[in-house]
Every structure is written in C-alpha cells, then in structure tokens.
Amino acid sequence: AANSSLPVVDLGYGLWQATLNGTGNYYNFSNIRYARPPVGELRFSPPKHPLVNRSVVNDGQDGRICPQGFVSWSKERSLFVDAYRTNPNNISSFTHVPAPGINTTAKPPKQQDSRASEDCLFLDVLIPTNVYESAASCENNTSGAPVLVWIFGGGYYEGSTESEGNPAGFVSQSESLPSSSPGVVYVSINYRLGALGWMAGPSFTAGGGTENTGFYDQRFALEWIQDNIHLFGGDPNQVTIMGSSAGASSGLHQITAFGGTKGKAPFQQAFLQSPAFSPNPYNALHEEAYQEVLTIANATSLADLRALSSEEIIAVNEAAIFRADYGKSGFGPVVDGFFVPELPTLLLARGKYAKNVRAVMSGHNTDEGLIFTDPSIQNTSAFNTYLSTTLLPDAQPEIIDYVTNTLYPPVFTNATGLGYNDTISRLSTLLADTLLNCNVQALMSAFGANKSYAYLFEEGPSLHGEQGDYTFYDYGGVTKDTYGAVVNATVAKTFQDWMVTFDATGNPNGPGSVPIQPYGMGHLMGSLSNKGVGTPLKDPAGAERCAFWQKALF
C-alpha cells in the first residue's frame, strides 16, 4: 500500500510516489516511465511518449533494466590484465582466442537479470528532502537545484541506472559544499543496449530500422527532464550530463547531435569521464553484424526480427553480444548521416555542435587501453597485421605506415617518451588514444580555455573505469575499487567536489574544493592522485597523435 505521507509527482500521463532514505535524507522516485514500451513495431525505432495511465500510483518498486549481454572475452581479459600487471615478461601463454563463430555451439552463460525487459525506458530521480520540500512550497519553474544526469557506461551492451553505484556519497557532498548547497537533483536513465539499441547497416535501414536508437532514447530522456524536472525541485536551465566510458561518449555524441543544427541541446554542461567508443565508419562491418543477428535469429528481414517474442529477441541479442571480437562489444555508435552526421571529433573541430552548452569537463586514466588490448599481439608483425585487418581495415598503406612508424614506432625504451616499452603497451597506448584520450582533447579544444577543464586519474593501476569507484564513493570504512586497490578517500572527495561544484556553477573551482586550472593552450589536467591532488600535469595524449586521429583519415 502507498504511504500517504510520501510525496507524489503528477506527470500528466501517470503518478509516481517517492520512497524515503532516512539515513541520507533524500527522496528516491524510482523507475519512472519516460517512453512507451519499445516492442513490436516500435522495436528498432525511436522512442515515443508514454500512454496515459493514471489508474495507479507507481511506487517504483518494479525495477527494470534493458536486455543486455556478456562478451566471451571478459574472463580472458581479467586473467591477462592481472598477469601483465604482475609480470609483463611472462605473458607468452596468451594466444589469440577467436570470437565464437556464427555456427558455434558455445552459448553465453545465463546472464539475464530477472528485471531485464524490452519495456525498460525508465529513469530514477533522487533528491535531497530539503530541495524537494523547498520546491514544493514555491511554484517557480524557472529556478531550482542544479541537475546532474548520469548516463551509464558498459560498452553499449550492458548497464542500467544503478549498475555503476549509489550516488548517495556525492549527493551528500553537494549538500555540504557552499557552491552547490542545498544539493543537486540526480537523475539516472536507461537506454537500449546491444542489437536492440545499436543495430546498423544498409539492409537494416532499408528494412525500416533506425540506427543509433540508444542515442534517441537518451535524447528523449533529456527532453523529458527539460519538461518535468521542475516538478522535483530541479532547474531545467542548470542540467549537467555526466557518465563514464560509453556513458561519457554518449554525452560527446549528445553535444554534437545532428551537427548542432536542431537548436539547443536539452542540457547546458557536460562532465565526461573517459569518453570511450569505437570510431567505426565502416558500413561493411555494420552490415556484417546485422546479417549475423539475422542468422542467429533464423530470420531474413527486420520484419522477422520485429515479429519475434520478447523472450526470443532477448536471447538473440545476448548471443550476438557474446560473439564480439576481443576488445569490442559488437555494437555501438555509427555515423548515420542524421543524429551522427560525422564522427564527433570532426564535428567538434568544425564547430558543428550545440552552442548552448556552456562548459565541459572531462578526463581519462593513465592506463585506459590495456583492458581492450588483445593479449596475443606480442610482436611487431602481429601489431601491423592487427592494424591493417582489424583496427583500420579500409586505411591506405601510407596511413598504416604513418601510424606504425611515425606515431607509434616500435622503439621500446623509456627514454623516448613514447609512453610504452613493449608491444602490448604500444598497442594499449594506441587504443587509448583512438578510443577515448583524443576524444577528450577534441572536446577541450572545441570549448576553449575558459570553458573546459580536465583531470588525469592516477590512483591504483589507473585502468579504464577505475575512477567510477571514486565517482560513487560513499564515505565510511575501507572500500576497494574494481581492480582491488583501496579507494583513496581524499582523492574521492576531491573528485566529487569537482563534480558537484561544476554541476552547480560550470566551474569545478569553488569554496572548499581543491583548485584546478583550465585545460587551455597548455593542455593541463588536474591530477587525481595521492601524489598531489589538483597538481597541473601535461595531457599525456600526444597532440600530434590526436591531431591525426581527429582527422579520421582511416
């Protein structure tokens, strides 16, 4: 039964009631529907507004996550990363393990959460009680608390509103800092994953499918926030999007959506942590992935895929994700000519992005590429073959030569300053640049000296995703991060201070937070390490390398 003492928000099409977290003193409006179920003819199509259902008060206890999957190489990755970090000279036992073929009898281990459903376009809103009560006592849609929107990461094949942690820690920080008091409104959104959100290719679109459907989901949720967040005490004119990995590269694509031609973006700021995605402008690869899905489903057309039951398409999606090549997820953003008219780095360089975005903050970790690095690439010959056949299959020979001999030459001495000392770290450095580090640099360059800030995360092994444990650090006790290192509470507090201060003001500097310099012409990043939090460091991603990748000559 509903608790009549807890607030209810009327969204017109439905009613949602909060739960109360007494310890943290915040209301949680969980699992709010923001779009119609994307099933049947709406499968592989952009989201639509919810149908009206005011017959019940939703208490948010019916949790939903989008259907997702498990990549076959994740176990090997864990073994390899541990082995390489322990002794980089003792990895010869790792040989190439091809992805499970289309006719394989290998099946993904049963991964589906009981909450997994195609009907998954929901979001959560978490609000400090004093923020909500202040708004409830004053009808004023033009002001309110700053809003922080979390877009989860997970390679575009896994994740949910809650998958990366509980925001209670930094919401509490936002209440105590002078610049962000009395607190921020936190929103976390679901979006479609794997084949259901990121199918692409000429045959797919010819059959009536929409590419980058997951981006349309995110956009729809961001527009919902513009229309409704004032009802929860949030200010629609002070919205910061934030995410890690795929969530951060989603933010990058939201900034450059439609090449900036469709008016204002439904947010004003962005804080993007390690914005990673595979820049794949190759139609042949997208077509191949679509045909593989058809084969798995024993289907011949998109109409056949739309006719499958939810249980059947969820199984197909899971099987397709499982077959991804090492370091890849099989699905993700594509250049579609509409939402993504060109790669975001090109759009940023050409000024084709939303100009109402006032400020950006971004950054990366010192060893981003290792978890994506195929452990079998252990010599120069294998490195060259990987580049020409897997990473840059359409590149001209002179481009491959420039990458292998000028940008990332096979010179393995620390004195070179190249950032690597063996073939594995050479490939890891290259992948870090292509997948995300140069995205940070492109974003910083586009927004200029006074509107862009960057951090360099150096704690623990500093592998991809590790800063997420600092984002969602909740104070008290000893906490270990994803890779087993103890979270440094001082560094976590600084990171959270920067997040909530930036959300509130567009600048991470403020009373009570560690100073950080703008990125600027010096390419400066504020250190996140126990060696000196906030210390300005030169961006280790080389300008010449990033200038090349940003041109997308491949």
Short key terms for the protein model shown above:
alpha/beta, 554 residues, Carboxylesterase_B_AS, EC 3.1.1.-, hydrolase, three-stranded mixed β-sheet
Account of the 3D structure:
The chain contains 17 helices and 14 strands. It is α/β, with parallel strands linked by helices. The chain has a single domain, classed as Alpha/Beta hydrolase fold, catalytic domain (Rossmann fold, 3-Layer(aba) Sandwich), CATH 3.40.50.1820. The strands form two sheets. It has an eleven-stranded mixed β-sheet, with helices on both faces. A three-stranded mixed β-sheet has the order 1-2-5, with no helix packed on it. A hairpin with a 4-residue loop joins strand 1 and strand 2. The protein starts with 7 loop residues before the first strand and ends with a helix. Belongs to the type-B carboxylesterase/lipase family. This is Carboxylic ester hydrolase.
Helix and strand arrangement:
Elements: E1 8-10, E2 15-17, E3 19-21, E4 26-33, E5 57-58, H1 74-86, E6 122-128, H2 129-136, E7 145-151, H3 168-176, E8 185-189, H4 194-198, H5 202-206, H6 213-228, E9 234-244, H7 246-255, E10 269-273, H8 283-297, H9 302-307, H10 310-322, H11 344-349, E11 359-365, H12 380-391, H13 397-407, H14 423-447, E12 452-457, H15 468-471, H16 489-505, E13 524-528, E14 536-538, H17 543-551
Parallel strand pairs: 2-5, 7-8, 7-9, 9-10, 10-11, 11-12, 12-13
Antiparallel strand pairs: 1-2, 3-4, 4-6, 6-8, 13-14
Helix pairs in contact: 3-16, 8-10, 14-17
